[in-house]
Amino acid sequence: MTKYNSIFRDNLFQDRTILVTGGGTGIGRAISHELASLGAHIIIASRKLEKLEATAKEITDAGGKCSIYTLNIRNEDAINAMFDEMLNDHKTIHGLVNNAGGQFPSPAENINQKGWHAVIETNLTGTFLMSKTAYNRALKQNQGNIVNIVAEMWNGFPGMVHTGAARAGVSNMTKTLAVEWAKDGVRVNAVAPGVIHGHGITQYDPAFVESYVKMASADIPLKRMGTESEIASAVTFLLSPAAAYITGETLKVDGASSLWRKTWVIDNHQNSAKFDGFED
Predict the structure, then answer these.
(1) Over the chain (280 residues), what is each successive 10-residue block's mean pLDDT?
(2) Exposed/middle/buried for 92, CB within 10 Å: 0-12, 13-18, 19+?
(3) Was domain 17-253 assigned CATH 3.30.70.100?
């Protein structure tokens, strides 16, 4: 049986219902386990039913409460249909974790328009549509709050320009929504994971993973990758009453890698043109 040992007090989220997108795998699974272990009724939603079912069984077998819904966050009609069904079943939600996302590693010059739009629509547009719908249909009525999962993209994101652009947009959107929705007591924050050892990184090509992980880990000041549970704990804090005076912030959980890490190897070259206005 899968049991989650949270660092937070028991029943912290008793009588709270929290929706986690992409909650069937990776960081979303860890977030769902942690919140359920603290008494929340967790709703997990994503496109792949079998992964939702597996995580829901883990949570319920451990004594938690979990419901599942299939969802495509890039489709506003699908989002509204899911909310119709979910709110009919559960009346309201008190929190939303926008964890669902997706990307693929590629140099910028090789990304076509279709690939660009797919990543932007999932990570940026999908997050906006979920936030707007949750706010209008539940959160503003009960002073709920939102946590968005972004990424370490503060110094650009060479190798993943599409997701870097999208996640930077979400971080900015987090600030905007925090101000606009403060009048209803709705807090909006984000968590920016660094390099995390878990399900997400295993989805890439093994050769890429091996080279990237070695390079990234060597340059992280704490000299290791993070865990999915460390991201889950940060999300839990921001959802909790302990963060009642925090809104519009993006919390970096990256072992200081955003302060001291290279993500791109630059080959030796002599292709940099220079200007000198003086003539000999």
Answers:
(1) 84 97 95 97 95 96 97 96 97 97 89 94 97 98 97 89 95 98 98 83 66 73 91 98 97 92 76 78
(2) middle
(3) no
